[in-house]
Specification:
- The protein is mainly alpha-helical and 131 residues long.
- 77% of the residues lie in helices and 0% in strands.
- The chain contains 4 helices and no strands.
- The protein is elongated and about 50 Å long.
- It starts with 11 loop residues before the first helix and ends with a helix.
Length: 131
Amino acid sequence: MQNGNGKKQQGSLLEEFFTDQLKDIYYAEQQLLKGLDKMQNAATTEELEDAFSEHRKQTERHVKRLERVFKIIGKNPEGKKCEAMDGLLREAESIISETKEGTMTRDAALIIAAQKVEHYEIASYGGLVQL
């Protein structure tokens, strides 16, 4: 955006950055929905299956909330490839393939993978709220 003097307005770069980060987390949340299904199916205990199910419900709410934010800023919801989430989900898939089915080792590893995802979400949303 330019002001009447032909100069870029202050804040337009910040607005672009905000929108870019919004697209990033929107993509990340959509990919996470798929990843949580895989982690839930790989879980050994019913408690962990339930935890992944609950996280999936929260993630669905996050996607809807992000869509409302896009609407508020007058943009169509769209995602932008998030290398960080893709990497975290690849790591979770590796855990599933490298651990023995039905073991507590797999569950412990899946919990750690889920915690990493959660921390990424916390950092992303914390930054967006500040912007």
